[in-house]
Amino acid sequence: MAQTPAFIFNVPETPEDQGQEPSPYDESEVHHSFHQLIQEQSQWAAEEGLELQQRVPEADTLGASGSGHQAFLGPEGVPDYSTATLRILASMPSRTIGRSRGAILSQYYNRTVRLRRRSSRPQLRGVGRSARPSLRLYDLELDPMAFQEEEKRILLVKELQGLTVAQRDHMLRGMPLSLAEKRSLREDSWIQKGKQRGPQGRRGLFSCCSRLRYACVLALHNLGLVLLSGLQALTPWRYALKQIGGQFGSSVLSYFLFLKTLLAFNALLLLPLLAFIVGVQAAFPPAPSGSVPAFTGLELLTGGGSFSHSAMYYGYYSNATLNQPCSPPRDGGQCTPDAGGLPYNMPLAYLFTMGVAFFITCITLVYSMSHSFGESYRVGSTSGVHAITVFCSWDYKVTQKWPSRLQQDNIRTQLKELLAEWQLQQGPQSVWGRLRQVAVLGLVWLLCLGTTLGCTMAVYAFSELMIKSPVSAEREWELLALPLVVCLLNLGAPYLYRCLAALERHDSPMLEVYVAICRNLILKMVILAILCYHWLGRRVGALKDQCWENFVGQELYRLMVMDFIFMLLDTLFGELVWRLISERKLKRKGKPEFDIARNVLELIYGQTLTWLGVLFAPLLPAMQIVKLLFLFYVKKTSLVANCRAPRRPWLASHMSTVFISLLCFPSFLGAAIFLCYAIWQVKPSSICGPFRTLNTMYEAGKVWVRHLEKAGPKVSWLPWIHRYLVENTFPIYLVSAVLLAVIYLNIQVVKGQRKVICLLREQISNEGEDKIFLINKLHSVYERKERSRVGRAHEAETPPTLLADEQDAR
């Protein structure tokens, strides 16, 4: 059995290294020394005529060598290298590291030797030729499987004992071994170290302290892992999302992930409103302006009645100064306000809290969009992704039956999506096919835009009719007519678009979803634009002596409630009833597919209503949170029971980015423009709300600044901030430019990553060619040496008389 020579790597120590602990990161010298050692051994082997293969005196070796310097080609065009060359290739680090535990132990044993830096060992260069380990009669065998694992383990334990605690932990943490083997190595190093230090008195005490400290650190680490796993278990809908992704694919999963994102946005918007507006006003309730009507139950649909006198709407909040400090006089009279104090100005708090909440939402949206863009459009090599999914997707930590089944479904669905995406790569169509497809697309788009225009005109005509015929308080239920018409149009038009989309016959399901999203988005945004004009352009003038802010808040409340009711009805009749009809009457086995485009646009539409109405109904985000929570479980139950996976599976790698982008630009930007116009241009009502005595809502900031200028020099910096950062338009443009620059820079970073990835691919390809070149050179060198060896052996075996006869014959 071939024995592997033990080489001692000598790394010269510098004077600065004396007295310092070795760092586990300084490995460049080891690599340099190893490279030097290989070069020296190669030169000496060439001088002494050392062989790379063990001498086997058989006749078959005479024909093993080739006649050329190039490798022979096998039956399939693969180079047919010799046995020694194949052994060398098999012992390359890229083919041995991670293959066995012995290779890992051997590798990290050498690293611990480097960390110890034992200067007592002699250098290889200073040892005589006779005392050096010889390569003669040995294979150039670098395979770590030839080492004895137990010997290497004992040596590794001894080397670990000579390291410090931090270096030992770092070394064990970096080993690609199982946790049980790492724990065994750590315990062996501690036990033997304790045995060595036990009889030494005070050093044994230090070992106990170190062991106690290590136990405390390990206990805290385990506690942190338990808390982290508990937090992950508390993640909302964690297992439900895994189940949806495994059964229905990433396209359907993207809808539920988007719903979860909207839930987080609404929670982030609701927190400052509860803390600085609703909570403060609830702690200091205003005096009732009149009798509060009794609760009848109709308020849940209309939003009026007793809800109009609650913290739900804008008109409930007072324009007084809350928590106003005062100093009572000595004569027992009423207290007078302290001129130097800073009371809680409710109009200012209302305006600034709305602005800060929207600014935080904007920052969060931009960050989410840029992060999602960077994650979705990150370029990686698509070659071999199927093999990676098959062989590298399984999580071996999963041991229970249900998670294993869920992981199997997830991997199977991923493979279906990858194969479907690969099959979509078809050849170019003919000219006639392209012309026909363009004509069909143009016709379908004209019909869809005509439908959108008709719906818009219907909403506008009905809104004008509602203005001309006002509704009395006794007939409050008639206010549901406009929301009912809007929801009917929003429900019926997408089904018409879906029927027209069947004529297009898109090759890509993803393109079909994007087109459907675009058409539904145009419809809903145009209807919302008509409604915004109806509220701020027409209703403000018609409701001069009333609280028009409450009316707008109630309209948005009714739209949200009716939209939620129609979503439930669509889930019931569009999915459940259709499944029952198709299975029992039509005798079809297939269930309907989940309409991703229509459901996603319903979420965006509902979120837009929330942002439009938050100024007039501060508790509208709370309603949206309840709606989203209830909607998740309804949609999940209907999806599992009534829907099936997409007939043509497709990989929704960019869907989350598209959803966030649509939520940011058409939805949030439109709501921000609407609210800015209401704050800066529209006159508030004179009978309700915190801005009842002002010409515009924005004047609340100016009044506050004038009050601060009289308060004293202690707060003189606040008027300066308002004057130069709020009233001045330059900071607003600057913040907008910074946000756009962040998005642009993130896009450029992704493009730069693409270029770097392309360069790295090219470099990997070139390195592969270099390796092939070096292997061919190695093969040719081995063949020359083999021919020379065979020639010398032939000369040695031939008698001198035969050699003389051959020379005479020549």
From TrEMBL:
Residues 14-27 have a biased composition (Acidic residues). Residues 547-653 form the TMC domain. The chain crosses the membrane at residues 212-234, 255-284, 348-368, 438-460, 480-501, 513-536, 556-578, 599-619, 657-680, 730-747. It is found in: Membrane. It comes from the Eukaryota. It is a multi-pass membrane protein. Keywords: Membrane, Transmembrane, Transmembrane helix. Its main location: membrane. Residues 1-31, 789-810 are annotated as: Disordered. Pfam families: TMC. Belongs to the TMC family. PANTHER family: TRANSMEMBRANE CHANNEL-LIKE PROTEIN 6 (PTHR23302:SF4), TRANSMEMBRANE CHANNEL-RELATED (PTHR23302). This is Transmembrane channel-like protein. It comes from Ceratotherium simum simum. The lineage of its organism: Eukaryota, Metazoa, Chordata, Craniata, Vertebrata. The gene is LOC101387908.
